[in-house]
Amino acid sequence: METDLHPLLQVNVMFTYAHDISLLVPAHIDVSLAVEFLHIKTWADSNGLVINLGKTKQQVLHHPHPNKH
Known about the structure:
The protein contains one helix and two strands; from the N terminus they run E-E-H. The protein is an alpha+beta fold. It has a two-stranded antiparallel ribbon with strand order 1-2. A hairpin with a 2-residue loop joins strand 1 and strand 2 (about 20-25). The longest helix is centred in the middle third of the chain and has 14 residues, at about 35-45.
């Protein structure tokens, strides 16, 4: 099923699999993760869907510093 849910900015990447969504948001952009999440929550509410906040996770990824291990 195709969805009309898309990230607010194209630099933010959204992956969907079954009923799960993964959203990648770079650290230094105009639209924060909180704003993107609010956009997803608003979309879900308007489509009669509920986000399970107990299963919602945030994972911070970064490149390691070349001089630190």
